[in-house]
Amino acid sequence: MRARSKKAVFAASSDNAGSITVCGVRTVSAMLEAGRLRYLLVTHTSNSRVQEILYKAEKKSIPIRQVADVELVRLSDNSQHQGVAGLAEPPVADWRQLLRRAEAPLVVLDGVTDPRNLGAVLRVGRAFAVAAVVMPSRRSAPLSAAAAKASCGAAAFVPLHRVTNLRRALTEIKQAGWFVVGACEDAKISLVDATPTSSSPICWVFGDEGSGLRRLTVENCDLLARIPTVVGEAGCLNVATACAACLATGANRWFPE
């Protein structure tokens, strides 16, 4: 294992504005597989899964440093780091190219502030091959170590795009030919009964679990639909579960031919 000083590793990381800290075997492995891992920090090298990561990182000439467990805990937002963490550059969507990707659905998050919810949505997005996840640059969850870990590796493959004005972004999405569907528990139309007015690619919009979609966001949706659930405590789904339900429902009926 090559020796690297703490100062050298983190001085270099400060030059990468789009870099994030990732932790956990699955997340670090995914970033390594995707060619997005830039530095590697380990503490429990006796673990066979960590040893495999070390071997692959060495072959790719990725800088490696062994650190104390307490340092990995600090860097990983107190998440279970499993003895490994690193610095990675997650994929970022190019806005113009993104709007031309009509072969895959698009997910927009309005006011989702919990990093673990963001990570879970990225995981769902990876499962359904979404074009990207779009969210406001302010008052939204950061792609932190906790979010990346909750994504179970999906943060290495699903592009995340931040916009300064969500209303304007939705307008541009619609102008590019997407059909925008907002998930709203108060909507009159059920998801299973909803039918788009065209064969356009679908853009799904999800709000915060507490407050839901904001008024301006609702006004920029082509359709509002609710997920049919039983009345009671089970009726309110978290944002990642709602996302999965919508993408699964639309997978067979709403994808363009």
From TrEMBL:
Regions that span the bilayer: none
Highest rank taxon of the organism: Bacteria
Keyword Transferase: yes
Domain RNA 2-O ribose methyltransferase substrate binding: 21-94
GO biological process, one term: methylation
SMART domains: SpoU_sub_bind (SM00967)
Keywords: Methyltransferase, Transferase
Record keyword Transferase present: yes
Annotated GO MF terms: methyltransferase activity
SUPFAM superfamilies xref list: alpha/beta knot, L30e-like
InterPro entries: Alpha/beta_knot_MTases, Ribosomal_eL30-like_sf, rRNA_MeTrfase_TrmH, SpoU_MeTrfase, SpoU_subst-bd, tRNA_m1G_MTases_N
PANTHER family in the record: 23S RRNA (GUANOSINE-2'-O-)-METHYLTRANSFERASE RLMB (PTHR46429:SF1)
Name of the molecule in the record: RNA methyltransferase
